[in-house]
């Protein structure tokens, strides 16, 4: 494993755990830690961005340009993630297991379709 991949793996894992913990803290009323959860979530997001920039520099690759195609890809990824999250909320918070599972599966399929959208089919 290359050093850049290992660094990205560790930093990405830490940022993902911080973001997930922050979302749990913010969204679970039993924890009573909304403000702290938002702070942890933001730290996780910023660390994820720092991870991406660090990996690009270690690989000596340029940062992706923010053109129309990449903007649409980002918006699609955000929409797919939100649909997946809504399905999870429907299952875990609103106790609508069947509908939540269906909405979550739609989000998963949308996220899977993100791979050919970004990489293309050859």
Describe the protein's architecture and organization.
- With 122 residues, the chain is mostly helical.
- It has two domains: 1-63; 65-122.
- It contains four helices and no strands.
- The chain has helices at 3-27, 34-58, 68-92, 97-119.
- It is globular.
- The two termini are 26 Å apart.
- The model has no long low-confidence stretch (mean pLDDT 94).
Let me know the average pLDDT. 94
Element string (H = helix, E = strand) = HHHH
Q: How many helices does DSSP assign?
A: 4
Structure class:
mainly alpha
The percent of residues in helical segments reads over 70%
Unreliable spans: none
Structure summary, number of beta strands? 0
**Shape estimate:** globular
Quaternary arrangement of the chains shown? single chain
Binned strand content: under 5%
Report the span from N to C terminus. 26 Å
Counted up, domains total 2
**Rg to the nearest angstrom?**
17 Å
Largest sheet: none
Core attributes:
122 residues, mainly alpha, 4 helices, globular
Helices and strands in order, then pairings?
Layout lengths: L2 H25 L6 H25 L9 H25 L4 H23 L3
How would you summarize this macromolecular structure in one to three sentences?
By secondary structure, the chain is mainly alpha-helical. It contains four helices and no strands. Helix content is 80%, strand content 0%.
């Amino acid at each position: 494993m290359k050093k850049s991949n290992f660094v990205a793996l560790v930093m990405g894992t830490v940022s993902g755990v911080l973001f997930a913990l922050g979302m749990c803290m913010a969204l679970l009323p039993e924890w009573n830690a909304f403000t702290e959860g938002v702070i942890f979530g933001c730290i996780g997001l910023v660390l994820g961005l720092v991870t991406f920039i660090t990996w690009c520099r270690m690989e000596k690759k340029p940062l992706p340009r923010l053109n129309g195609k990449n903007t649409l890809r980002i918006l699609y990824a955000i929409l797919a993630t939100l649909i997946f999250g809504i399905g999870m909320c429907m299952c875990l918070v609103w106790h609508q297991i069947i509908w939540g599972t269906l909405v979550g599966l739609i989000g998963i399929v949308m996220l899977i379709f993100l791979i050919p959208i970004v990489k293309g089919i050859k």
